[in-house]
Amino acid sequence: MTDLHTDIQYLKGVGPALAKKFQKLGLTKVGDLLYYFPRSYVDRSKIQRSGELAAYAGQPILLRGRITRVNINQPRPRFYVLQAEIQDGDGIFCAVWFNQKFLAKTLAEGTEILVSGKVVYNNYSRRWQVETDDYEIITPAYRAGITPFYALTEGLTQKKLRQTVRLALEYLPFLADPLPPALKTKYTQADLPAAVRELHFPVKRDAWRQAHKRLVFDEFFYVELGAALRYARSKTELNGIRFQASGALLETYYRSLPYQFTAAQKRVIAEVLDDMAAPKPMNRLVQGDVGSGKTDVAIAALLCAVQSGYQAALMVPTEVLAEQHLAKIAARLAALGVKVGALLGKHTSSEKKEIYRQLASGECQIVIGTQAVIQEKVVFQKLGFVIIDEQHRFGVVQRQLLKTKSAENIDLLVMTATPIPRSLALTIYGDLDRSVIDEMPPGRTPVKTYHVPPRDRRRVLEFLRQHLRQGEQAYIIYPLVEESEKIDLQAAAESYAQLVKIFPEYRLGLLHGRLKSAEKEEIMRRFRAQELQVLVSTTVIEVGVDVPNATVMIIENAERFGLAQLHQLRGRVGRGRQEAFCFLVAALKSADSRKRINAMVETTDGFKLAEIDLQIRGPGDFTGVAQSGFPDLLLADLVKDEALLQTARAAAFALIEQDARLSRPEHALLRAELRRRSRGLIDYILLN
Ligand SMILES: Nc1ncnc2c1ncn2[C@@H]1O[C@H](COP(=O)(O)OP(=O)(O)OP(=O)(O)O)[C@@H](O)[C@H]1O
């Protein structure tokens, strides 16, 4: 075979042994190599001089010179250091290679060489030296230019990778551009094979920019094409359940509420119920900042399903959340005569069996639980509606699994309190309709947030005392980091003991993940009932706790938390009409932690914080999502490339509007490329 499916091992200089190393990087075919883009570049036309070494301390440097001497040391067993003395215009410097004894043959005296690496100080020789990460012997064929650097695995060098990529590039004529010509002229100026070549071995800055843009467009385009296909299918091809959007149950519920819905709640409930009443399956995402009142939207939708004669499930990612939802929702539904069951890890197998029985018979109308809800054993009598909460931890795969639980095409509502920046939402939830609860219940004043250096902690505790005196309650949070859980737990317990001494006139509770469920529930119950005034806790209360009388939150070691988590935590206060306060006790050692804490002090807007978070951290969690079946985004940057994402999305949706299943012959290549990139996950639509 002489095409892109050619096995890498047949490329010159590779062979089966090296092919295994490539495999470790996920590269088996020539085509894979073409798309294995460099993670950085070095401009080799910019060569430094050895006289500047000290100025580059700790940084990368590129030097060129002639080797004058080579020797090998073995400071400890099985560890070799190869040192080369190299002369350039400024004098002689030393370059070192670790554990590459075999290079001695190549690095002969008199050879002219280019070395790149990091400048470090050698305590023995008391000189600055270069720890090399790459080198190139200057031969007559040598051309200065921009050199790519790839992510490597053990046993593969930059040199070998570059060489092999160069060989793969000879196959570029086989790389047909799947983009239909009309789209190509409309959205990109770069030709695909040329763009791929330019990205590996850039020649001109402008050309590289165009090439990069083209390939980022492609990454987004295929993600959105998959989303558009799923979306189109649910809209046009599937028959859904027609739920009754009004009825006695809903009416009773609305009347029982002690408050009026906000305009946003009204609008979102209407959007959800409209979808449910429509003859197509609902696929909707409801986003709402912490405390915006999502529970009422969930309950209205659940009741709509029940009053239409269907069962419904509420799925959450963790046990703690499941219990909190249960506490929040079960009582309100029970009051309306609806039977709610729970599937939790703490339940005994006989308790679980009983729930299974009630779900199979239809006795139990709503079930709340973790992923256990979609286990094979669970059989529903008539499942019609599912809510997935905090869905970003569920993948497309789980969503598909869910759909096998019913003979009918069930309606799906995804809810999240994690404000997802728009660009990320478009990518992860590209196939969902979107509703946003963009208004808080009335009377809330934004939580006043302060950064507190650890030495000022005492003053905060005095402030807390004043508020406790007024009958208000408080949370004190200690972060628990998994790796050091034991130490953290101890620290929390010790601080708790101290706090008990500081506040002898009040009752405090200590809540942490090691407690049994029943113990946790009891502590939460007492806090809710105001039997406890202060809840000292590790992060288990992160999501969902709702005690409006709690007005003060103190977060210890706040620099350890991510922004999303801090925002979630802060959302536990300021849920009532009283003014609320959040103190972030933190020593700001790194620039990132400073940015995070400043952002928290400056705004309470979850969406703004999410954008900032994305800028600071990059879409870190996104990799988790990628594993659950989305095509990878290797080059694209969700922050910088947002505009391009919008363009790609529009292009993809427009295309699917004309050819709902990519079945036209002129889209055959596109279809094949989409299947390749989504690793079979779209096949259920494309092949049926
Ligand atoms: N329209 C409203 N008017 C007044 N209070 C409301 C309104 N809607 C909800 N609430 C109250 O606001 C608080 C927060 O609501 P809810 O728990 O539904 O928020 P949420 O969006 O689920 O928040 P979280 O994501 O933090 O769990 C609750 O105490 C709830 O009773």
From TrEMBL:
SMART domains (UniProt xref): DEXDc, HELICc
Gene3D superfamilies: Nucleic acid-binding proteins, P-loop containing nucleotide triphosphate hydrolases
Annotated Helicase C-terminal domain residues: 456-620
GO BP terms, alphabetized: DNA recombination; DNA repair
Keyword DNA damage listed: yes
Classification via Pfam families: DEAD, Helicase_C, RecG_dom3_C, RecG_wedge
Catalytic activity entry: ATP + H2O = ADP + phosphate + H(+); Couples ATP hydrolysis with the unwinding of duplex DNA by translocating in the 3'-5' direction
Helicase ATP-binding domain: residues covered: 275-437
Keywords associated with the record: ATP-binding, DNA damage, DNA recombination, DNA repair, DNA-binding, Helicase, Hydrolase, Isomerase, Nucleotide-binding
TM region(s), chain numbering: none
PROSITE patterns: HELICASE_ATP_BIND_1 (PS51192), HELICASE_CTER (PS51194)
One term of GO molecular function: ATP hydrolysis activity
NCBIfam families: PRK10917.1-3 (NF008165), PRK10917.2-2 (NF008168), recG (TIGR00643)
Function: Plays a critical role in recombination and DNA repair. Helps process Holliday junction intermediates to mature products by catalyzing branch migration. Has replication fork regression activity, unwinds stalled or blocked replication forks to make a HJ that can be resolved. Has a DNA unwinding activity characteristic of a DNA helicase with 3'-5' polarity.
Annotated family: Belongs to the helicase family. RecG subfamily.
Name this protein carries in UniProt: ATP-dependent DNA helicase RecG
Source organism: Termititenax aidoneus
